[in-house]
Amino acid sequence: MKNHTDLSEIFKRLSIATVNPAWSTGKVSGMADGGIIESNSPVDGRRIASVGQTTPEAFDSVVDRAATAFSAWRDIPSPRRGEIVRQFGDELRKHKHDLGTLVSYEMGKSLQEGLGEVQEMIDICDFATGLSRQLYGVTMQSERPGHRMYEQWHPVGVVGIISAFNFPVAVWSWNAAIAWVCGNVCVWKPSEKTPVTAAVCQQLIGAVLARNGAPEGVSCLVQGDRTLGERLAGDRRIALVSATGSTRMGRSVAAAVASRLGKSILELGGNNAIIVTEHADLNIALPAAVFGAVGTAGQRCTTTRRLIIHEEVYDTFKTKLMRAYEQLRVGNPLDEKNHVGPLIDREAVANYEAALAACKDQGGHFIVAGGVLQGDGYESGCYVRPCIAEVSPDMAILQTETFAPILYMMKYTTIDEAIRIHNEVPQGLSSAIMTLDLREAERFLSVAGSDCGIANVNIGTSGAEIGGAFGGEKETGGGRESGSDAWRAYMRRQTSTINYSDALPLAQGIKFDL
Ligand code: NAD
Questions:
Q1: CB of 34 within 8 A of CB of 57?
Q2: How far is the CA of 443 from the centre of ligand 1 (A)?
């Protein structure tokens, strides 16, 4: 992606004729004269496109349209909805390289990770297609004669999806693909930092839905900043709000949705650690820690931020880490020779610098120094050096998530101490232990072990598969998305009892004779 010619080729192949505020309008996105959002690439600072912002009035009519679409969409058999989602997966296969490149260019992650993100979308479409024939309820034994009791699942209605910049398209698809097969319709508010890839996705799904004669409004896109997110969270017509982003955002969304007794799924910040025990295979632990810490330039919710290392292997592992960090190449993420791309914007760079200063102030000692990179190839001002600090576990900085490649390492003596340090943060998303010792591994996975939503053995903290339920505890919000039975959160449960006898026996043996 060296110049705009490449970009316009991509837009052309994605059937986006012109790069102007109107092209994300589509038929169901409801853009109007709400001003524009400029998307500038963190890769080279160049403008990718401007996208129209959704006005409050347009938002209102989008949600109305979605609600109307729901009453038709819910009546379409689920396997038929699954077939439409399958076709969307095929569309993504066709455009994987172009969309993946655009994700990489707009967000700044490596091309491999951009392509991986689109692959994740394809995978969830496959998963949702199969799921469309498996939305099972259970039957229960009734205590009353001549009665049948069972549970069934119905869609909730309009699902609002608020997504973060770091997975600009995959997180939407995790929610939307599952929500659609369940019979819901979706209104998506992507991050204002990545509006272009969102508009492309809307274009792709819009074409698939139209080809299949689906009602207009099954997939809606609204574009704007947090103000629009707040509007969405407070809208009573939106039955479920699935919000992915910072814990600060989650607190606000949770309160707004709860105050109207709506449903929410919250996928918030992480502060993930790997415990490296004296029984670890360091040849596995090393790449897991390095990829976990510097992949996506430390901007994954599952990024490894803390290493808790047994004192016996501490020095050996530290030397290996320092050597590995020397090999890291920071630069244009579309150049596959580079390991680390830019941060999303200069505000993120300022947060990184503030965290480095705070860490030093609190007594941290940098064994791999950080800093902002300048000069050739770094003109966007968003490239920073991945760094490592030795810290003591009680430092305040360890309690917060800084969305940047800063790795904190600390020493422990006993496994109980390691688990205590591990759990002593407010977030609870992803966790890992590196050990070949069965007792240690099982202890980490036991009820007294990791308190996170994801707990891995001999795998790092980042890079989850869509087949599992994804999400975390504590300040990570408690929500689950994607695989396993996460679909239940997108549906409402109905318990039905049918009396086929000629009497009306009451439950608990209660007598009510007339
Ligand atoms: P952010 O919270 O700044 O923004 C996320 C989204 O929320 C954006 O669309 C934004 O416009 C919207 N928003 C912000 N404030 C809002 C409010 N008060 N009401 C409604 N909407 C609001 O987060 P970000 O910087 O885009 O993303 C990084 C954060 O997201 C990190 O904390 C990361 O850990 C988290 N994240 C979590 C997961 C997960 O699955 N747990 C996945 C990806 C990212």
A1: no
A2: 33
- Give the residue ranges of DSSP H helices in 38-184: 56-73, 78-94, 96-107, 111-131, 170-181
Is 90 exceeded by the pLDDT of residue 176? Answer: yes
Query: 16 in a domain, yes or no?
Result: no
Ligand 1 atom closest to Cα of 225? 11
What is the torsion angle, in degrees rounded to the nearest 10, for the CA atoms of residue 501, residue 502, residue 507 and residue 508? -110
429 CB near ligand 1 (under 6 Å): yes
Q: List the catalytic residues.
A: 267, 301
Residue span of the structural domain in which 378 resides: 272-465
Asked if 249 and 393 sit in the same domain, the reply is: no
Residue 370 inside a domain? The answer is yes
User: Is 341 contained in some domain?
Assistant: yes
What pLDDT score was predicted for residue 10? 80
Query: Domain tally for the chain?
Result: 2
For the residues of 286-344, what is the DSSP string, one character each? HHHHHHHHHGGGG-STT-EEEEEEEHHHHHHHHHHHHHHHHH--BS-TTSTT-SB---S
Are 380 and 441 within one domain? yes
Q: What residues form DSSP beta bridges with 389? A: 366, 408
Q: Quote the pLDDT of residue 33.
A: 62
Q: What is the mean pLDDT of residues 329-350?
A: 97
For residue 406, the domain's CATH number is 3.40.309.10
**Does residue 230 have its Cβ closer than 6 Å to ligand 1?**
yes
Q: Residue 374: what pLDDT?
A: 97
Averaged pLDDT, 68-96: 98
Same domain, 81 and 218: yes
CA of 469 to the centre of ligand 1 (A): 19
Whether the CB of 268 sits within 6 Å of ligand 1 = yes
pLDDT of 511 higher than 60: yes
Q: Which residues of 108-128 are buried (b: 16+ CB within 10 A; e: fewer)?
A: bbbbebbbebbbbbbbbbebb
Rg (CA), the chain: 24
Does residue 471 sit within a domain? no
> β-pairing, 454-457 with 473-474?
unpaired
Distance, CA 2 to ligand 1 centroid (Å)?
A: 30
Predicted confidence at residue 14, as pLDDT, reads: 76
Residue 314 and residue 226 in one domain? no
Mean pLDDT to the nearest integer, 352-374: 98
In this structure, are 290 and 433 located in the same domain?
Answer: yes
Q: Please provide the average confidence, as pLDDT, over all residues in the chain.
A: 94
Q: Is 266 in the pocket of ligand 1 (CB under 6 A)?
A: no
For residue 476 and ligand 1, the question of a CB distance below 6 A is answered with yes
